[in-house]
Every structure is written in structure tokens, then in C-alpha cells.
Design brief:
The chain has about 130 residues and is mostly helical. The chain is built from four helices and two strands, in the order E-H-E-H-H-H. Helix 2 runs antiparallel to helix 3. The longest helix is centred in the middle third of the chain and has 41 residues. The mean pLDDT is about 85.
């Protein structure tokens, strides 16, 4: 189980040794739970990437105002309290909506992601944002 990509143990009838070595423990001993768990994991990962992408895309222009102030001594157009109010007023609802999006049609058709290569925040994501 340790050498497998993901080790799965039965929660009710499985041994303690198998549960300790497993990455995933099925609490109901139903193999259909594996597919549902994979779907939910992929959905959460996709939605987190969307939320991070949105947060970076929206907040980088606000950060630029402070970077220009630090680098070029230009006056700050709005203070930090107004930026906080803008962020709370405009970022919270879209981020919540993105977190609760439905799974895409090809969610289970994709290959499993490589955890060493496909990170939650990558250079490509930051450039796109």
C-alpha cells in the first residue's frame, strides 16, 4: 500500500495496519465512495485554483498602487482602509460563488494530476492572473 499511487483501506473491516499505511480510508466499505471522493477532490482543487486566480487578478492592480508609491514616490490614490472595504465588498461574493461551482463535464476524463508538477499556485497561474 505504501508504494501505490494511493493506498485505500476498508474502514469497517480493514485492519489497523492497513489503515495506518493507507492514504484513503473508506468509512462505509463501499467502492463507489472512491469515485465520489476523487470527483470531490478534483472539484475542490479546480475551484480553489479559480478562486486564487480571481483573487490575484483583482488584487494585483490595487497592489500596484502601493508598489508605485514605494518605488517612484507617487502619492497613494486610496488608503489601506478603503482598499480593505473594496476587497470585502467586491471579492467575497464572487469567491464564494466560484467555490460552489458545479464540476466540469470532463472532470473524470482528465488524467490524474502529478502532485510534483501541478501545484495549486504555479507560475503559469500567476502570469494568467
Amino acid at each position: 500500500m505504501k508504494k501505490a499511487d494511493i493506498g485505500i483501506a476498508m474502514g469497517i473491516e480493514g485492519t489497523d495496519v492497513a489503515k495506518d499505511a493507507a492514504n484513503m480510508i473508506l468509512l462505509d466499505d463501499n467502492f463507489a465512495s472512491i469515485v465520489e471522493g476523487v470527483v470531490q477532490g478534483r472539484l475542490i482543487f479546480d475551484n480553489l485554483k479559480k478562486c486564487i486566480n480571481y483573487a490575484l487578478a483583482v488584487n494585483i492592480p490595487q497592489l500596484n498602487a502601493f508598489l508605485f508609491f514605494i518605488c517612484f514616490q507617487l502619492p497613494v490614490p486610496i488608503n489601506s482602509m478603503l482598499i480593505l472595504v473594496i476587497c470585502i465588498g467586491t471579492d467575497v461574493l464572487p469567491a464564494i460563488a466560484m467555490a460552489h461551482e458545479e464540476p466540469e463535464a470532463d472532470l473524470m476524463m482528465r488524467k490524474p494530476r502529478d502532485s510534483k508538477i501541478d501545484k495549486l499556485v504555479s507560475y503559469k497561474l500567476m502570469c494568467v492572473s
